[in-house]
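Subject: 4-hydroxy-3-methylbut-2-en-1-yl diphosphate synthase (flavodoxin) structure
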Amino acid sequence: MSLNHVRPWRNIYRRKSRQIMVGNVPVGGDAPITVQTMTNTVTTDIKGTIAQIQAAAEAGADIVRVSVPDEASSKALKEIVRESPVPIVADIHFHYRRGIEAAEAGAACLRINPGNIGSADRVREVIAAARDHNCSIRIGVNAGSLEKHLLEKYGEPCPEAMVESGLEHIRILQDNDFHEFKISVKASDVFLAAAAYQGIAEATDAPIHLGITEAGGLMTGTIKSAIGLGNLLWMGIGDTIRVSLSADPVEEVKVGYEILKSLGLRHRGVNIISCPSCARQGFDVIKTVEALEKRLEHIKTPMSLSIIGCVVNGPGEALMTDVGFTGGGAGSGMVYLAGKASHKMSNDAMVDHIVEQVEKKAAEIDAAEAAKAAE
Ligand code: SF4
């Protein structure tokens, strides 16, 4: 639960879910909402896949999913898992042997729909392999690939059909006494996805993996995801998220974090508050923010920075941020530290100076956190 009693209008009451483990990462319960992405390399390109996983992990991904379409990919998965800094989810469709191989290769979780992999014996074998290798399972219902009998029953993909599909898959796992599972009910349509997620959230206490599938490119996909996932997260639904973009996985991770940051559900790195700029600006706000975003990518400590073009809003925004800069006259502006006006700085030297101030503040926050943890 994310609660802020000082400002009750910011409270989000998180749905209570069971907690499962994806490798060493807890998902559900009171665990932080995790951010996932998926590689888009050919899995047998082991080097390329590992490089992409490392880049995603560096950007903050807690969990990364890798496709396992054939036996060669299962083999590659073993080495990928060994080198990965984060738990790996193996993405399996239809083929039960891939599921078993992926569990044996060390996948932390299988994304597999037990109702779609054939006979009860095959399902039992996959579940046994998952159990033997401490592997959890994600049931991944997708509006685009609903089972035929549900499409016939409901006529088209609809929230009820998606929830029913999810519950059918859940029942198979439960009948096999397997409970380490989470579930997603994705659709590319935000209304359909949101309704399906609300339905499944009521029908089960399993942790929920949120996603708007095939959301689009960086810009459109970000907006769709922010609306769809943002709305559900605001309602308290969702234990782990994946933003699906036709873009680099690192971008998916960044967008995922920004959505969580906007709702105060999780914090990582510098939250930059900046104005759109106008004729009043005392320095080039847009260029400066662009430069600072790049220069501050390495900061993982949650903190805030305000970059405001002039005194109309600058001092007010700076009040609520760790570091701030407000444009003034004659080629210089005011630097704010912990909400207070501290010193003047010339526009020319300002980017370097702000980077230094942010790094210093991040080190202070980290040291204070470490001291608190040692108490
Ligand atoms: S803070 Fe100042 S520079 Fe920025 S948009 Fe507002 S008036 Fe313009």
